[in-house]
Amino acid sequence: MNEIKQAIKHITGRAVVVRGNDIDTDQIIPARFMKVVTFDGLGQYAFYDLRYDEEGNPKAHPFNEERYQGAEILLANKNFGCGSSREHAPQALMRAGIRAVLGESFAEIFAGNCTALGVPAVALEQDAMAELMGLIEADPSRPVELDLPAGEVRSGDRTFPFSMHPAYRSAFIAGSWDSTSVLLSRAEEIGETARRLPYLAEFPA
Question: What sequence ranges are listed for the domain Aconitase A/isopropylmalate dehydratase small subunit swivel (predicted)?
Answer without folding.
Answer: 12-121
